[in-house]
Amino acid sequence: MGLDALNPPKPEDIHETLLEFPDNRLLIDLCGEFDRNLAQIEHQMNVHILRRGNQLAVVGDGAARGAAAAVLQSLYQRLEHGKQIEAGDIDGEIRMEHAETPSQPGDQMELFKGGRVEIKTRKKLVEPRTDAQKAYVKSLFKKELAFGIGPAGTGKTYLAVAVGVNMFISGHVDRILLSRPAVEAGEKLGYLPGDMKDKVDPYMQPLYDALNDFLPSKQVEKLIAEKRIEIAPLAFMRGRTLSNAFVVLDEAQNATTMQMKMFLTRLGEGSRMVITGDRSQVDLPRGVNSGLRDAEGLLKHIDEIDFNYFTAKDVVRHPLVGKIIDAYDAADPAKA
Description:
Keywords: ATP-binding, Cytoplasm, Nucleotide-binding
Protein name: PhoH family protein
Oligomer: single chain
Strand content: 15-25%
Main location: cytoplasm
Radius of gyration: 22 Å
Helix content: 25-40%
Family: Belongs to the PhoH family.
Order of helices and strands: EHHEEHHEEHEHEHHEEHEHEH
InterPro entries: PhoH, PhoH2-like
Strand order of the largest sheet: 8-7-9-10-6-11
């Protein structure tokens, strides 16, 4: 923990930044139980943090010390606004501090004030934890059609559903439609028990999970019963025009070229559409082209469409997930 023992900074580079926090109760929350929040910042930012009464002394070289101090101040401000601090919030503040970009002068939306991005839902406030996530969320609000492409665990679907819920509860759209290709990855649909809904629902479960994170479960059930929220396989979209809706196609790498064209042409007046996928997890039969890859090549020149890309650095699950993705990418000849 703390300063790198293998490459310690020179003594003349080590200085101390002293931060004072007036509310001792909030300072206790900032430090965390057994100072675990401070330990996380020390480990990830290569500094020492010493507690002295209502002050925290950050010890380290100039760049790391300044960044760690900024993270501590941002986290304290979260507490002042009545928010809690979890390990993921700390990780997000550290990532954003390392890759902060100035806010665009044209941003007029309230959620972009101060260069920060917040998505309000019924149950929680959602904040992007990496610079790529931040750019992605801005894209979802500004563009009628946006793509989120990258590995699992980077928040592509989660953030898209959060934005959809935000736009629904604020009255910008009348309904939410969430879809996935029901591609058979190792199991045959016909062999699974139950009727068609029972067979398909397991494929849709991640979408149900995301919705239940942002809306009370009883409200989700009511809205589904009223058809104001629909969760359905991609094949069920054929022949429809989706107007005044927020539409998400998840796992789009498993859509064929014809399915992708069919889905994209469902876009109606007043609607927003988000396509998410991971090109490294295609479950289509050998010889069948991925519609996501084709759409990427065909539509990149259209200014009204945004393509947002994520890497292992944007993984917000367990830190090991990013390392696993890097290892597989390194062994993939196509990415060499």
